[in-house]
Specification:
mainly alpha, about 90% helix
Length: about 50
């Protein structure tokens, strides 16, 4: 196995461990990420609308 596969499997294992060990914090993290993406999308939409 090459290094990329090993690091990928290690990352997935770490993610699964986090989800199983701390599900409330994992859910809050996902919520925060989605809120940040929504805010960024709204800002981009506002910017594009101001161009026209």
């Amino acid at each position: 196995m090459n290094l990329k596969k090993i690091l990928t499997f290690a990352g997935i294992a770490l993610l699964l461990f986090f989800l199983i060990a701390e599900p409330q914090q994992a859910a809050q993290l996902v919520t925060n990420i989605l809120n940040s993406l929504r805010t960024a999308a709204e800002a981009l939409i506002t910017f594009v609308r101001q161009l026209f």
